[in-house]
């Protein structure tokens, strides 16, 4: 219910977002800026200007969940992105590293077989 795991897709907004936005404003931002549907169960990630705050929006079958994390010190490291691509899809591993404070430049992924299981 409240968990974030590797069974969903993660999309990061490519520009900073004011952290006073709530569920409705973030929902409208997704609807206006991307072809993605906020109600499909995917996770949408929004960072503040100084990258010390993150908000995570998730549809949970009958309503939205909004997670908010503020760092007391330091900032989140974001991946290098192409602003022309709209919302940027992150892997579960990259999302987990960002939230844990791991330097993305030092991470090297080794090749692995991966398959996505769809829940019915």
TrEMBL record:
Q: PROSITE patterns per the record?
A: YDG
Q: Which residues form the YDG domain?
A: 1-73
Which regions form coiled coils?
none
Entries under Pfam families matching the protein: TnpB_IS66
Tree of life domain: Bacteria
Q: Per its record, how is this protein called by name?
A: IS66 family insertion sequence element accessory protein TnpB
Q: Which species is listed as the source?
A: Dysgonomonas termitidis
